[in-house]
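Long-time lurker, first post. I've been practising inverse folding by hand and with some scripts of my own, and I keep getting stuck on stretches where the structure tokens seem ambiguous. Below is the full token string for one chain I'm working on. Before anyone asks, I'm not after the true native sequence, just a reasonable design that respects the backbone. If someone could post their per-position residues I'd love to compare against what I wrote down in my notebook.
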């Protein structure tokens, strides 16, 4: 994976860099760049107190999300799939290289499905990990998942492992990382956030029980100054609604990782509308998830500016995919382009499509 990045412009070259970013885009994207360049320059005009970088790594329809705090301390949420000659570990390494880090301090496994935990053995073979965090033992009665759990436990032998519960924190210098959900339980209140009645609950439909590991996903809220990022793994509808109804303990967020890769078993309106994301990233595959109903709910959520995608959802249609400049991998599998977020403590952030090199800035609220 090649990652073209323009996240640390020096004052003397900001305007030139902005025009370079624009110059390498197609005509339609150029128009967007032209409109955004002044904002982008203005947002960078005071020296940042540090940046939080978030990489939505393309693991072809799984999850692997790398967060790197200004201190260099890091959290990897999930590890992608096994196999493919260590493809997903290599893509994680590419993101680490871009971020300038040599180890991962914390690895959070949201749940024990293959597209999240499967990459652990190949990761630990290549990368030093400080600790593993997960929701506790597998509870899904399925041979594949039991096998995933056994392979995981074997792979992390000798590493520190900590079981997380709702309300726990993951200590990372400069960030607040609060566990919202784990093992089917959820938090009632996040320190510093007043739970508010959620008006979207009244029109929410009933969701079925989900006996799979998805419903046990460990979900986190990451706060960096005024910037907030929500990642709930593959949490399914009934647990989403339980988390935010009748009171929403999360408040609103700047960036939402579209839950469950954009499957319509997740992304209830009651949660998506209540958390009111400014930008969403959907970690779908070319032929996995990115379902029209879920895409539409996220796309239509109040206040949403852009819905970025790791892939075109090729089983869907043009009306339920974002424009190509918002998609890291527009055609097929295998290219492995990531989406890179750079957030500042004032709540502003940018998203870079590493395929095109184009960066879009989202000013603070
Ligand atoms: Zn998944």
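-- Answer (accepted) --
I ran through it position by position. Result:
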């Amino acid at each position: 994976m090649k990652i073209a990045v323009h996240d640390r412009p020096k004052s003397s070259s900001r305007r030139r860099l902005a025009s370079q970013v624009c110059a390498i885009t197609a005509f339609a994207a150029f128009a967007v760049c032209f409109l955004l360049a002044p904002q982008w320059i203005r947002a960078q005009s005071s020296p940042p107190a540090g940046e939080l970088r978030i990489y939505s790594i393309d693991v072809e329809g799984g999850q692997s999300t790398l967060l790197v705090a200004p201190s260099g301390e890091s959290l990897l949420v999930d590890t992608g799939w096994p196999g493919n000659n260590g493809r997903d570990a290599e893509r994680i390494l590419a993101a680490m290289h871009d971020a300038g880090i040599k180890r991962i301090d914390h690895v959070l496994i949201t749940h024990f499905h293959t597209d999240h935990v499967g990459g652990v053995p190949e990761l630990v073979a290549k990368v030093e990990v400080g600790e593993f965090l997960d929701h506790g033992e597998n509870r899904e009665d399925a041979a594949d998942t039991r096998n995933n759990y056994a392979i995981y436990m074997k792979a992390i032998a000798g590493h520190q492992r900590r079981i997380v519960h709702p309300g726990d924190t993951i200590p990372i210098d400069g960030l607040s990382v609060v566990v919202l959900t784990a093992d089917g339980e959820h938090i009632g209140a996040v320190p510093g956030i007043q739970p508010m009645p959620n008006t979207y609950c009244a029109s929410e439909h009933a969701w079925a029980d989900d006996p799979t590991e998805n419903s046990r996903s460990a979900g986190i809220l990451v706060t960096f100054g005024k910037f907030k990022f929500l990642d709930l793994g593959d949490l399914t509808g009934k647990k989403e609604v339980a988390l935010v109804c009748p009171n929403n303990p999360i408040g609103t967020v700047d960036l939402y990782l579209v839950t469950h890769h954009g499957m319509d078993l997740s992304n209830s309106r009651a949660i998506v509308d209540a958390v009111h994301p400014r930008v969403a990233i959907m970690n779908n595959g070319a032929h996995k998830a990115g379902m029209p109903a879920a895409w539409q709910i996220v796309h239509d959520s109040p206040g949403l500016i852009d819905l970025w995608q790791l892939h075109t959802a090729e089983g869907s249609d043009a009306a339920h995919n974002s424009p190509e400049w918002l998609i890291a991998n527009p055609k097929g599998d295998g290219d492995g382009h990531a989406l890179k977020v750079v957030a500042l403590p004032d709540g502003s952030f940018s998203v870079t499509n590493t395929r095109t090199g184009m960066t879009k800035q989202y000013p603070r609220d």
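A couple of notes from the structure itself: Confidence is low (pLDDT under 50) at residues 1-48. The two ends are 33 Å apart (CA to CA). Happy to go over any region you disagree with.
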